[in-house]
Amino acid sequence: MKPNKPSLILFFFALLCTIIFDWTQQDFLATYAKAIVLPAIFIYFLISSEFQIGKTEGVIFFFCFVGQVYDLMDIESSELGGVISFLIVYLLIVTIFIREHERIKLTKRDILPISIVVVFIVYLLISVLSLQLDNMKKFILLYTFYGIVLSIMSYFCFVSYITKGTHITLLMSLMAVSYIFSDIFYIFNEYFSYSIVLVLIRDVTQILAYYFMVEYFLEKARIQKKPIQQ
User: Rounded to a whole number, what is the largest CA-CA distance in the chain?
Assistant: First the structure.
């Protein structure tokens, strides 16, 4: 067994336990299961990358931990703390996209699918921000900025996949989709009637977002090493 496999197995075991405990409404046990997720995937990343981690990736993991802690603590400041933490995560991911990826080149055949993507992202952003929720009204500027940053990140991911169709752009798109659904269903869970289905979708997409993010980081590192090896 490869050295990184135990931590990856632990990660998916924690995901399975989260699903089971959410479904049976064992909130206390579900909290413990979710607490294992980030340490497990972080160890998997460190071992897979031979303990080489960039400063930006390190800060991203740090704020993922902070955001996860706020979520698990479930105190009065948890919502605001979680939003700020993941806003920083998204800003840093966008920074990586801008700094380390080639500029996207569009062709005529890309115009239609990209237009659909743009309309879809804008529709989701406007729909969520237009919800008449008291807490969102108090921090409307923060939520708006958060939504715009997430939309920019998602746009870059989807357009990269449409124009290039590579493995790394697929991972980017899966990461963006997971984060989008995680955030949307987080809002649904916070402000609408309790639903096991909503809780499951929120938790599963959040956990899968971490996995796709780590796989993206690892694939990016592999691509960057290839020219050196040649």
Answer: 57
Q: What's the burial of 218, exposed, middle or buried (CB within 10 Å: 0-12/13-18/19+)?
A: middle
Place of tokens 């197995």: 9
- pLDDT tens for the chain, 230 residues long, are 678 889 999 999 999 999 999 999 898 899 999 999 999 999 999 999 988 898 999 999 999 999 988 888 766 566 788 889 999 999 999 999 988 777 777 777 888 888 998 898 998 888 887 775 555 666 778 888 999 999 999 999 999 999 888 899 999 999 999 999 999 888 887 777 778 888 999 999 999 999 999 999 999 999 888 754 44
Report d(CA 223, CA 219) in Å as an integer: 6
Q: Which amino acid is at 161?
A: Y
Residue-by-residue DSSP string for 123-140: HHHHHHHTS--HHHHHTH
Dihedral sign computed on CA atoms, order 83, 85, 86, 91: positive
pTM for the model stands at 0.90
Q: What token pair was written down for 104?
A: 């996207």
**What is the C-alpha separation between 157 and 193, in angstroms, rounded?**
32
